[in-house]
Amino acid sequence: MLSQDYPVTLACELLDCPRSSYYHQPEQPDDTELEVAIRAVVAEWPTYGYRRVTAQLRRQEWTVNHKRVQRLMRSMDIQAKTKRKKRRTTKSEHDFPRYPNLVQDLEIVRPEQVWVSDITYVRLLNDFVYLAVIMDVFARGIRGWHLGRGLDHTLTLTALQRALAKHPAPEIHHSDQGVQYAATAYTQVLQDVNVQISMADVGAAWQNGYAERLIRTIKEEEVDLSEYLDYNDAYRQLGRFLDDVYMHKRIHSSLGYLTPTEFEEQWRKEQALALELN
Fold first, then answer.
1. What is the SS3 assignment for 175?
2. What is the mean pLDDT of the chain?
3. 223-233 pLDDT, tens per residue?
4. What is the pLDDT of residue 212?
5. Cβ atoms 169, 193 nearer than 8 A
6. How far apart are CA 113 and CA 118, in angstroms?
7. Residue 143 to residues 13, 114, 196, Cα–Cα distance (Å)
8. Residue 22: per-residue pLDDT
9. Dihedrals phi, psi of 121, to nearest 5 degrees
10. What is the pLDDT of residue 177?
């Protein structure tokens, strides 16, 4: 110890350090309330990592940084939970026309510029049903969805019709090359409203990455954490997640930790203000 060889006063003078600093013992912050708040966030959002937990806490008016949250989550042995299952929903062997990928390397800067679509299966107590979703890439907003009992083209067609009934048609519709999206009944609806059709290459799931990530979110944050008794139960619970939780409560790191609804509203306000100033 330095104090055993040199007087404390002399050492502090040499180091230009107040003697009180030598004796000061910093108080450790009481993290009890913050730990309770973290557990509450993780209980509601089991797949959130420390960064999104931090953002959610800030929305709840906590003044906290992500390093502190990360440290506490580690000490509490809390990790984002994931559970993955796979079931094939894409059938690319068909004779319908194929379309080129129009969105690869495309800069997406506004709503309704690009919609993406995908399908996933949902396990019931004694059966399977299938969910088709359509998302606007810019705002990550759900534009349409449908839960069907089978994988024929009416599954995706119903989701598309619902989306077009509530929102302006997109400039581009992007999907994989599954028969549900290539079928004439589906592509004709898009062509009738002057939408360009874009498809990922066969076997290139990453080319439909936005939709893949949406499906992963739905699976991890709703489907894999729920038990559905039957079709009606699944329809009700999935509808609550997609229309309420996902759109109005779930924050997205890609949107600056806003919800899709908040992000799109903010963008439209900024556009309106820019028009007024011009």
1. strand
2. 85
3. 988 889 999 99
4. 92
5. yes
6. 17
7. 69, 11, 17
8. 53
9. -95, 155
10. 92
- Nearest residue to 173 via CA among 151, 153, 188: 188
- Tokens (6 digits) for 229: 């008794």
Instruction: Give per-residue burial for 227-237: e unless 16+ CB within 10 Å, then b.
Output: ebeeeeebbeb
Q: If you compute the radius of gyration of the chain from its CA atoms, what whole number of angstroms results?
A: 26
Residue at token pair 């068909």 = 94
Bridge partners of 252?
A: 258
**Both tokens of residue 248?**
């109005």
Q: Give backbone dihedrals phi and psi of 119, rounded to 5 degrees, phi first.
A: -130, 145
The string of DSSP letters for 95-155 reads SS-------TTPPP-STTSEEEEEEEEEEBSS-EEEEEEEEETTTTEEEEEEEESS-SHHH
Please report which residue ranges of the chain form alpha helices under DSSP H: 2-5, 8-14, 19-23, 32-44, 50-59, 66-75, 153-166, 179-182, 184-192, 209-221, 231-240, 260-277
pTM score = 0.72
Task: Report in angstroms the alpha-carbon separations of 232 from 91, 125, 149, 156, 237.
Answer: 26, 12, 11, 19, 9
Question: What domains sit in the chain, N to C, each tagged with a CATH number?
Answer: 2-75 (no CATH), 114-271 (3.30.420.10)
**47: amino acid identity, one letter:** T
pLDDT at 49 over 60: yes
Task: Give the residues across from 116 on adjacent strands.
Answer: 135, 174
The CA distance from 135 to 151, in Å, is 19
pLDDT tens per residue, range 194-251 = 999 999 987 777 889 999 999 999 998 999 888 899 999 999 999 999 999 999 999 9
The structure tokens 């937990």 sit at 53
With 0-12 / 13-18 / 19 or more C-beta atoms within 10 angstroms meaning exposed / middle / buried, residue 144 is: buried
CB of 132 within 8 A of CB of 119?
yes
